[in-house]
Amino acid sequence: MDIRGFQKLTLLDFPGHTACTVFTGGCNMRCQYCHNSDLVKYFNEYPQIDEQVVFDYLSKRKGIIAGVCVTGGEPMLMKDLPEFISKIKSLGYLVKIDTNGTFPNELKYIIDNGLCDYVAMDVKNSKEKYGLTIGRENFDISNVLKSIEILRSSHIDHEFRTTTCKTLHTIEDLKGILDMIGHDSKYYIQAYRDSEKVMDRTIEGYLPSELTVIVEELKKINPNVCVRGL
Q: What's the CATH number where 215 sits?
């Protein structure tokens, strides 16, 4: 597997569990607010980490950490992802996958074969502004909608989430996302934070007070909406 980053401990990435995080290189989107832009555009400049490094670490941490988060980039681009996470599962660890939802067939295979325990799917924006947000004009959203339906009809624990910024997201856009994912789904509004690695430094985030008001309005539609990152 093309691993370009390895964080040995996280208390935040896997809800309810201590975990480590594996970062894959490459992505099929160019989201303007992306914080992992180096893993999207310049991942070949990072040394590739042999997957055995991950397995050696996991073999020594049984009982200390509970899970492994696989993120990116977009991990579903990795053809050997099922084999990789199958090995992780065989060691007794929980697996969380982060995905942008553009690979529904791969997602379904992983779920149907019991290869992960939690999925976090990014829903980038309303249907009308999806292409603008991800840097792909005339983007066909059908695969994203398929992945949403796969998760909603599965028994696997999952969440939908949106990194929200004033430049790209209005309250009406976020209500449009609720229509896409269903009014009963677990949904996190993530606060955008500027950094040197953001794809577009002109992006403007919401103030915490503004996001709080937005979330309270969205809760009228879906009481499971929460804010993350304030």
A: 3.20.20.70
